Amino acid sequence: MAKIHTVYDHIRANNIKTWALVALFPLIFIALIFLFTWIVAPIQTAIDTTISVAIPTIIACCIWMLISWAFGDSMMLNAANAHEIKPDNREHREIYRAVENVAMAAGLPTPRVYIIDDDSMNAFATGRTPRDASVALTRGIIRRLDKLELDGVIAHEMAHIGNRDIRLDMLMITGVGVTVFAADMILRTAMYGNHTSDDNDRGNGTAILLMVWLAFSVFNLIITPLLRMAVSRNREYAADATGAHITRNPHALASALRKITTDSRIESMDKIKSMSSVCIANPAAPRELVGDLMATHPPVATRIARLESMNIK
Description:
This protein is about 65% helix and about 5% strand. It has helices spanning about 5-40, 45-80, 95-105, 140-145, 145-160, 165-195, 200-245, 250-260, 290-295, 300-310; strands spanning about 80-85, 110-115, 125, 135-140. A hairpin with a 7-residue loop joins strand 3 (about 125) and strand 4 (about 135-140). It is elongated, with a radius of gyration of 22 Å.
């Protein structure tokens, strides 16, 4: 007899997968620098180069992450052209109450509520901690979903808040930006900044720098997109499962996903690819097959099937 998977099984499995994938980021980064440098230099030089490159890069990532920690949420909300609504806002009073009720059911503080002036259907959460989190909903998702479906979407976003996904997303986006900048600086140094008087030393130094740049490039262009895709997909599955647990109604969220994916594009976010992972569905324009294979969101059909198979007790 097949085992019946409960919502807790889904959440536990996805959390384990997420942190295993997150741990791979620094490990693969360090391994790539060492292996590529070792191709053109002795093992001790490769070790020394790896240490001298990895430590400053990690320190820069930490500093930039602190800046993102302080200002990332407001930057994301501004990028989406979202405006805050207050509890006494007559036009959106019911929406605020819905968020408040779902937050109460989730055992979390009520987040700030934002409306995005777009007739498409989408939503995202942001913030550093549950105490200063925000939930943003498009005008279209509010108008076009029924109450239970909208509660399911809000619960999904509250799940991201409760699971600390919003913090993880901001840190990952920031870390990737630092490694891209570092790769550019290393290439410039290799091409123009190596002024050693000895021709042999200059040639060896340039070769090492080019191999370090190649390691960064492989990490940024191949490894990072794959790992981010895997992490983001696991977090979406976990948020679906947690959101279903909050409302006790996985079928309502499944129904909402069916509707949302027919019109999820947010025009103001077309050029902000890094924010696609924080939305409940891809907010950008439709993409080619290759892009879909690298998408940060799992296939909608799979998400719906998982929701409809859940046994909520």
